[in-house]
Give the backbone structure.
Amino acid sequence: MIDAIAWKFQTGSQWVHLPEKYGNWRGVYNRLRMWAADGTWERVFTALLAQADAEENLNWAVSVDSTIVRAHQNAAGARKKGPRLASQMTVPSAGLAVG
């Protein structure tokens, strides 16, 4: 069951494409949802984290792929509603000598 769930998230494939060796995809999906709802996953990860911490075997690596994590449209520089602010006039530096 865990291998089937891991395969799904590792490949990013749809549930219906789960290989037959893992059984019916609906059963795997329903088990994943039940374990998420009843807190099983949280207990498993907490226990694994505690075990790794006790063995001083924690090594955090975080990878964020921009093709998956999307920014909100406002983060892309879209103008917010409201009046536009007048741009500041650029003043040349007094330290430059004109020859």
About this structure: Helices lie at 2-11, 25-37, 40-54.
